[in-house]
Structures are given as C-alpha cells and as structure tokens.
Amino acid sequence: MRPDQVARAADALAQARRDGVRFDYLPVACQIPDMPAGYAVQEALHEKLGIPIAGYKIGCTTTVMQEFLEINQPCGGSIQVTDVHKSPAMLPHNRFHRVGVECEIAVRLGHDLPPDEAPFTRLAVTGAVATCMSAIEIVDDRYVDYSSLDAATLIADDFFGAGCVLGPALTNWQTLDLANISATMLVNEREVGSGKGAQVMGHPFEALIWLADTLAQVGQGLKKDQIVLTGSIVETQWVAPGDTITVTVNGLGTAKVSFT
C-alpha cells in the first residue's frame, strides 16, 4: 500500500471508532491487500487516535478460536493504555457494541524485543518476560458483519481488541509449567469453558515468539513494560448487562470483571 492509502484506511477506521458506529467496509481505493499492510494501517490508526498503546493481544492462537472465526492463523492487535484494567473491574456494558470475553494467559515484558534481533527463540522471549498473569481479554464486535471482512482488515482495527482485565502479576512464574497449567472461565459462576496453556500454539511463549517475529517484519518491536495477551484458551463468550466473568489460571490466580 502507498502511504496515502494507509492513511485513508486508518482515517476510515478511526472515524468509526470516534463516532461510535459499526464499521462496514473500506473504500476500494484503500483496500488492505495483505497482513503486513494490515499491521501498517494498525500503527497509523493508533497515531490518529492519539492514545498510546500498552501492548498487544494475539487472536486465533488456538484451534478453538481458529474454528470459531474461520481464520487459520494468528492475528495481532494493539491494546490502548486506557483499556487496561486491574481485577476486579466494573465496566459499563453500553460502552461496547457487542462485548465478549476471552480466557487468557498474559505476560509483561522486562526488556525490549527489538526487530533487529529477530528471528526470536524460546530462550530469548523467556528471558524477556518479567511477570505472568491470568487475564480476561475484552473484545468488541464493532462491525456490521465481521464475517464479510478479511483478516488483514480486522488486524488493521486491532482484531476485535477492546482491552483487558489483568489478574495479579506473578514474578516467580518460572516455577510453573505454562504448557500444562489449566484455565477455566465462569460466567455468573457457571463454567463455560476450560483448557490448558498448551492449546496456545503448544506453549503460550510460542505465541509471543510469533508476535515478536511478525512485528519485526514491518520494522516494529516489543518494548519493556508492554503486556501481551497470548490468545484465548476458551471460545469467546458474548455477555449481557449484569454478567460477571471470572477467569482462573491455576498458579496465576484469578481475573474478574462485571458489566454494569
């Protein structure tokens, strides 16, 4: 994409966010041809919104989510600093178009993973992780019909991302087998799904490697103190006003959010 096309696509997405309307489609003149272009538009979108990012979410890292969205590869989105919440959190349901929740293992980085160090190894990303957390990703179906949009366009708009609720930060996570720890999600005390860390590309840090390498391809890197949500272990659950969601990851504690 030419720079002017990237700017036009980012303008259209930013305008939909500012106006609080459901996004429909991009004009033909600024269609996004591939995923690298999607990440370029995503970066331009956040420049236009003027809100710093706190980190990234990764979608479709598990079979259950790839089947749910009919997208067979991981996709990354940014998380704005204003959309990061500490558990327990209360959020207004009408702040969103159609709000959903996901069950995640999150990390916070202790140092940079710059693009010039790609490709990354498990050893490299493991050394960069400062803390691990249980997390609830907040997603928003802010589209007229998301099934009509390709993955590159969804990536440009942060791949449904609308924030997260973080559980307690664990610094001695090295004692845990992150591939084998179990996670469950409850909606109003009723279990709606469960799984293990290995469902995330074999190990949650494999998702982190994928993200760091993918960003490096477009000249971007991960930075110290950024958070990364590694992907939902449980299928997205759409929630109603009054619902309370609890995600528990054994060894990492609990994250909780209520929608008022």
Summarize the amount of helix as a percent range: 25-40%
Name given to the CATH homologous superfamily: Fumarylacetoacetase-like, C-terminal domain
**What is the chain-wise order of helices and strands?**
HHEHEEEEHEHEEEHEEEE
Strand content: 25-35%
Number of helices: 6
Tell me the CATH architecture.
Alpha-Beta Complex
The geometry reads as globular
Q: Which structural class do you get from the secondary structure elements?
A: alpha+beta
Average predicted confidence as pLDDT: 96
CATH topology annotation: Fumarylacetoacetate hydrolase, domain 2
Level-1 CATH class name? Alpha Beta
Count of individual beta strands: 13
* Main beta-sheet strand count, sense and barrel state: 8 strands, mixed
Describe this structure in words.
- It is a single chain.
- The model has no long low-confidence stretch (mean pLDDT 96).
- The longest helix is centred in the first third of the chain and has 17 residues, at 3-19.
- Helix 1 crosses helix 2 (35-49).
- The strands form 2 sheets. Strands 1, 2, 3, 5, 6, 7, 10 and 11 form an 8-stranded mixed β-sheet that branches.
- The protein has one domain: Fumarylacetoacetate hydrolase, domain 2.
- It is 25% helix and 30% strand.
- The relative contact order is 0.23.
- The protein has helices at 3-19, 35-49, 63-69, 122-128, 151-156, 204-217; strands at residues 53-59, 75-80, 84-86, 89-91, 99-109, 129-140, 161-166, 182-187, 190-196, 227-229, 237-238, 244-249, 253-259.
- With 260 residues, the chain is α+β, with helices and mostly antiparallel strands.
- A hairpin with a 2-residue loop joins strand 8 (182-187) and strand 9 (190-196).
